[in-house]
Specification:
3 domains, 12 strands, Nucleotidyltransferase, domain 5, five-stranded mixed β-sheet, alpha/beta, Arc Repressor Mutant, subunit A, globular, 16 helices
Length: about 425
C-alpha cells in the first residue's frame, strides 16, 4: 500500500524515470537539465526527452529568463507547475468530514469541514456522504469555479486535472484490491467494509484513483515528511485511545493484516489490567487519555465535559505541580518508556514521535521515558534514537492524506494527460 511500485518492463521503466525526474524538479527546482541528469543518474538525452514529456503534460515549465554561469550557452531551468495536478483528501471522523484540495506542491487550495450525520453501522451511508463531499470539492476546484486569481497562479497556467482521492479513517485497512477496512468500532463497522469499492461505485466515470488509508498511518506519514528526513519514524498518538503508524524509508508499513503501527495495544506489563483488545497490560491502559485522566482524578470531568475540558485541567494541574497529576503522568511515562524500548529494538527507527494529548504532556513524559532508555543508551552510546513531540497537531491526518496523494502523482506523472498544442502555447 504505497504510492509507487517496482517497474516491470521498458514502458514501466520509462514511466518510473518520468517520476524520478518530476520528483527531483518538485524538490529541487528550478533546475537545469544537466543538474537533473547528475542527481538522477539518467543520461542527459533521456532527461531532455523526459522533461519534454513533462512539459507536454503541463507539469513543468521553463523559466522565461535563461540562467548563465559557467561555459557554454545559457540554460533555461525547469520548474514545477503545481496547480496542474490536484488531489482531494478526506478525513473521516465519527462526526465530521474534513475535506481538502491540494496541488502538486502540497499547498491546500480549498478546504471544508462539515458534519456528516451518518448513523453507526451503515457504511453505505458514509460512502454516500463522502462521495457527495468529493463531488462538491471537485466542482469547486478543478472543473468548475477554478480561477487563476483564486489559486494565485499565472493566468496562463494550464487547466488543472483532479487525479486522486485519498480517504483517511480509523481502523485497519488491508492491502488488498478493495483496500478493505477490516473493522472500525468507532463507526459501528464490526465486519469488513470494502470502502474503496463503495466509493468507486458512487464516483463512477470520474476517472479519479481512490485510496483508503488508516488515519494513524496518514498522521505518521505527514510527521515523517514534516521534519528533517529520518529513515524511520514511529508515531504514538493519543486521542480517544492510542494509535499511530510506522514509516520506514518513506513507506508506510501496515503489516499482514493492516494493524502494524498500533502501539496502543503493545503489552508493556505481563499481568497488567485487561484491555478491550483481549490482551492484558497494553500501553493504552496506562497511557491512554482515559486511563491517565482517571488516575489524575479527572474521570468525572472527562465523562461529563469531554476530553478537551478534562485535558485542560490536567495540564493546569501538571503545571502547578499537583502530586496526583504528576503521579498519573509518571505512570504513563514509564509505560511509554517500555513501549519505546521495544519499538526501537524491533524496528531500529531514528525517531519516535508522540502526538495528540501525548504531545501536550510531553514535558512531563520525557524524563520518565528517558529514564527507561538510560540503560540502553549507556550500553550503546551510538544509539541514534530521538523521542520528540509531534509538530502538526490536529491537521496531521488530513495533511498525511494530502502528502500520500501528492507523492502518488509525483511517482506516476503519466497519469496526467498531454495538453493540446494550443493549451501549451
Amino acid at each position: 500500500m504505497n504510492p509507487a511500485s517496482e517497474p516491470a518492463d521498458s514502458a514501466a521503466v520509462r514511466r518510473a524515470n518520468l517520476g524520478r525526474v518530476l520528483r527531483h524538479i518538485a524538490e529541487h527546482g528550478p533546475c537545469a537539465r544537466t543538474e537533473i541528469a547528475s542527481a538522477t543518474g539518467l543520461a542527459h538525452g533521456s532527461v531532455t526527452a523526459l522533461v519534454g514529456d513533462l512539459i507536454e503534460r503541463g507539469l513543468v515549465g521553463e523559466d522565461e529568463a535563461p540562467r548563465g554561469g559557467g561555459r557554454g550557452r545559457p540554460v533555461r531551468p525547469v520548474r514545477l507547475i503545481p496547480v496542474r495536478a490536484l488531489s482531494i483528501a478526506v478525513q473521516i471522523t465519527a462526526e465530521r468530514l474534513c475535506v481538502a484540495v491540494a496541488d502538486l506542491g502540497g499547498t491546500v487550495v480549498w478546504r471544508a469541514d462539515e458534519a456528516h450525520h451518518c448513523p453507526p453501522g451503515r457504511p453505505e451511508v458514509m460512502a454516500d456522504a463522502v462521495a457527495a463531499a468529493v463531488r462538491r470539492a471537485a466542482a469547486a476546484n478543478g472543473i468548475a469555479g477554478w480561477t487563476a486569481a483564486a489559486s494565485g497562479t499565472d493566468p496562463g497556467a494550464p487547466p488543472p486535472e483532479l487525479l486522486r482521492v485519498v480517504i483517511a479513517m480509523a481502523g485497519p485497512v488491508l492491502d488488498d484490491a478493495a483496500q478493505t477496512v477490516a473493522v472500525a468500532p468507532d463507526f459501528g463497522w464490526l465486519r469488513p467494509v470494502r470502502l474503496r469499492e463503495l466509493l468507486a461505485e458512487r464516483l463512477i466515470g470520474s476517472g479519479y484513483v481512490i485510496d483508503v488509508i488508516n488515519d494513524g498511518n496518514a498522521a505518521a506519514f505527514a510527521e515523517f515528511h514534516a521534519r528533517p528526513r529520518a529513515r524511520g519514524l514511529v508515531l504514538i498518538e493519543a486521542g480517544t485511545g492510542i494509535g499511530g503508524g510506522v514509516v520506514l524509508n518513506g513507506r508506510i508499513q501496515i503489516g499482514s493484516h493492516g494493524v502494524a503501527g498500533e502501539p496502543g495495544h503493545m503489552p508493556v506489563a505481563m499481568d497488567g489490567p485487561a484491555c478491550v483488545c483481549g490482551a492484558r497490560g497494553c500501553l493504552v491502559v496506562y497511557a491512554g487519555p482515559e486511563a491517565v485522566l482517571n488516575a489524575a482524578g479527572l474521570g468525572d470531568t472527562l465523562r461529563e465535559a469531554g476530553l478537551s475540558a478534562a485535558n485542560s485541567l490536567f495540564i493546569a494541574a501538571l503545571t502547578a505541580g499537583e502530586a496526583r497529576a504528576l503521579a498519573a503522568a509518571d505512570i504513563a511515562a514509564r509505560a511509554l518508556g517500555v513501549a519505546v524500548v521495544g519499538i526501537h529494538a524491533l524496528l531500529d527507527v531514528e525517531e519516535i514521535v508522540l502526538g495528540g494529548t501525548l504531545a501536550e504532556w510531553f514535558p512531563w513524559l520525557l524524563p520518565g521515558i528517558e529514564d527507561r532508555l538510560a540503560g540502553r543508551r549507556a550500553l550503546t552510546p551510538a544509539l541514534d534514537l530521538t523521542v520528540l513531540p509531534a509538530v502538526l497537531g490536529a491537521d496531521a491526518m488530513l495533511l498525511g492524506a494530502i502528502e500520500y496523494a501528492r507523492r502518488a502523482v509525483l511517482a506516476d506523472p503519466a497519469a496526467v494527460p498531454v495538453l493540446s498544442a494550443r493549451t501549451r502555447g
